[in-house]
Design a protein that fits this description.
Strand content: 25-35%
Strand order of the largest sheet: 1-2-3
Number of helices: 1
Mean pLDDT: 75
Number of domains: 1
Number of strands: 3
Structural class: alpha+beta
């Protein structure tokens, strides 16, 4: 089983130089700062297997999350044959 979660992180200072740093919904309650959204794939025991960085103003729909998680399962299966694919 693989777990997928999204979080965001904001930049103070020179974050405007990052092309993916944008103003968006701020989970950190910092609407004055630009941010990026990070998607992280981990095993059931918490071992990180992969990540994606999205523009800070991108809202993740259920379909986008499903596609991203499915892509990670394929990449993880190719990189680590001992990790079982989820049937979801």
């Amino acid at each position: 089983m693989l777990l997928y979660d999204l979080t965001s992180t904001y930049f103070e200072g020179l974050g405007d130089g990052n092309p993916q740093a944008r103003r968006g919904y701020s989970r950190g309650h910092r609407p004055d700062c630009v941010q990026v959204v990070i998607g992280l794939v981990v095993t059931k025991s918490g071992l990180p297997l992969g990540y994606e960085v999205f523009a800070g103003n991108q809202a993740a729909s259920r379909r986008e999350l499903d596609e991203s998680a499915r892509g990670h399962r394929v990449r993880v299966a190719r990189a680590a044959p001992g990790v079982r694919k989820s049937s979801a």
